């Protein structure tokens, strides 16, 4: 029996066709049948003139649900052409953290819309916007379920029902005193297992993981990941619960952090969040290229300084690419290990051990590679001295390349800069210079034996 396979592209094209014909009812029928993620994909693909039809064809509630599946820049880009009244309704139906993130991207237009909101909505959003960028306070949501420690389980169920429609997540009940201080946490699962007459304060967990408003979002992400949490409470200096950060927001943040670190690791300081012009991309990449260009000139100068050695034994030039590639590859591997450890805070107390371990790894790789290369040269060139030069060079170069690949990002991190700026091309160029110097120094020393 044939299975009915849903064909997204064909279905999307049907939606685009009815939208072009301004068939509102058919558009709504086709679009709202889809999962919200797929609805978001349809809206992303609309031509600008068709995007303007959204506020006529969809209610603010329906559109707000779809926006949750888009990143902040996409949200701001979609809403910029809508009427302020429609945008205001959408903001009122979005979670507070998502709405604040989007408003932060809209500039003066966002401030104008903010002034049209109710006093409570405006106060909530202004509080989130006031926190430093990438802090726990800036990414938290204020929509959570709270109960009193004096409530019974039966009363708590009623409170959950009342608060659930506006809460972003209901896996946890946050037990607060009259001043909003967080006393404990109770999971919904545990709530279901308790007798109706039991007091919440008697069964809540008083030992809980939390973060502070000013904590960096990476710390929040690490806590949620390490303790396998669905949400993390965010407290102020008086232990008052100000909001929670949910795991779905953290997943987006981790993706952004990985993208940022990958770009910096590759010596690319641009972003994929918004379209950039050719000039913007060239301008952000040019500084790295210029720096690497001058460092490359050092390699050229180094080769020129050993011109006499090369003239006497021309075959040495044939192995320069092997030395440079091997040094760069091993150094980049160590760099990846070091940067990962620093980003995940795994090396705070064992920097020395990490450097020593990478050095020993480099020695093992260098010894093996040196032996293999020496044997190959003996077989094909039948020159024992040349084999010795290359073998020693590879051994020393790979051993030291692991140190540079490990030490440079750790040093930069110590200086309070992002370790990812010690990019692959940067480390590769350093190790190229190191490898060439070792190679020609050993060759010059043993030249009389060749």
Distance between the termini: 76 Å
How much is the average pLDDT? 85
The largest pleated sheet is described as: 3 strands, mixed
Instruction: Please work out how many helical segments DSSP would assign.
Output: 23
Would you give an account of this structure?
This protein has 450 residues and is mainly alpha-helical. It folds into three domains: 8-130, MgtE N-terminal fold (Alpha Horseshoe), CATH 1.25.60.10; 146-255, CBS-domain, CATH 3.10.580.10; 278-449, Tetracycline Repressor, domain 2, CATH 1.10.357.20. 65% of the residues lie in helices and 6% in strands. The chain is built from 23 helices and six strands. The chain has a three-stranded mixed beta sheet. A three-stranded mixed beta sheet has the order 4-5-6. Strand 1 (146-147), helix 13 (153-163) and strand 2 (172-176) form a beta-alpha-beta unit. The radius of gyration is 30 Å and the shape is elongated. The chain starts with 7 loop residues before the first helix and ends in a 5-residue tail after the last helix. The relative contact order is 0.06. The mean pLDDT is 85.
């Amino acid at each position: 029996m044939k299975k009915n396979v849903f064909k997204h592209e064909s279905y999307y094209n049907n939606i685009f066709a009815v939208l072009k014909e301004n068939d509102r009812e058919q558009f709504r029928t086709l679009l709202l049948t889809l999962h919200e993620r797929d609805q978001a994909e349809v809206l992303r693909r609309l031509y600008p003139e068709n995007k303007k039809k959204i506020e006529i064809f969809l209610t603010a509630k329906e559109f707000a649900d779809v926006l949750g599946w888009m990143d902040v820049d996409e949200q701001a880009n979609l809403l910029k052409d809508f009427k302020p009244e429609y945008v205001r309704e959408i903001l009122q139906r979005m979670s507070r953290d998502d709405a604040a993130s989007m408003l932060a991207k809209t500039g003066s237009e966002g401030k104008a819309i903010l002034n049209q909101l109710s006093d409570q909505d405006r106060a909530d959003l202004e509080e989130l916007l006031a926190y430093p960028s990438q802090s726990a306070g800036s990414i938290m949501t204020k929509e959570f379920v709270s109960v009193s420690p004096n409530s019974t389980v039966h009363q708590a169920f009623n409170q959950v029902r009342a608060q659930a429609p506006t809460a972003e997540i209901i896996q946890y009940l946050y037990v607060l005193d009259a001043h909003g201080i967080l006393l404990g946490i109770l999971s919904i699962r545990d709530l279901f297992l308790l007798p109706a007459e039991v007091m919440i304060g008697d069964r809540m967990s008083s030992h809980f993981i939390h973060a502070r408003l000013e904590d960096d979002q990476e710390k929040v992400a690490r806590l949620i990941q390490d303790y396998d949490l669905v949400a993390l409470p965010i407290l102020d200096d008086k232990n008052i619960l100000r909001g929670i950060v949910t795991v779905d927001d953290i997943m987006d943040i981790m993706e952004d952090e990985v993208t940022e670190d990958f770009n910096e690791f590759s010596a690319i300081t641009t972003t994929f969040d918004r379209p950039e012009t050719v000039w913007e991309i060239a301008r952000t990449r040019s500084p790295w290229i210029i720096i690497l260009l001058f460092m490359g000139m050092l390699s050229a100068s180094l080769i020129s300084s050993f011109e006499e050695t090369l003239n006497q034994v021309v075959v040495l030039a044939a192995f320069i690419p092997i030395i440079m590639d091997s040094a760069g590859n091993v150094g980049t591997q160590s760099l990846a290990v070091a940067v990962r450890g620093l980003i995940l805070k795994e090396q705070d107390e064992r920097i020395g051990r990490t450097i020593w371990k990478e050095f020993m790894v480099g020695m093992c790789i260098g010894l093996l590679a040196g032996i293999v290369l020496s044997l190959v040269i003996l077989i094909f060139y039948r020159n024992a001295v040349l084999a010795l030069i290359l073998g020693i060079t590879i051994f020393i170069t790979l051993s030291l390349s692991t140190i540079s690949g490990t030490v440079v990002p750790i040093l930069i991190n110590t200086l309070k800069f992002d370790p990812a700026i010690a990019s692959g091309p940067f480390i590769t160029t350093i190790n190229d210079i190191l490898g060439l110097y070792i190679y020609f120094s050993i060759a010059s020393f043993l030249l009389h034996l060749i």
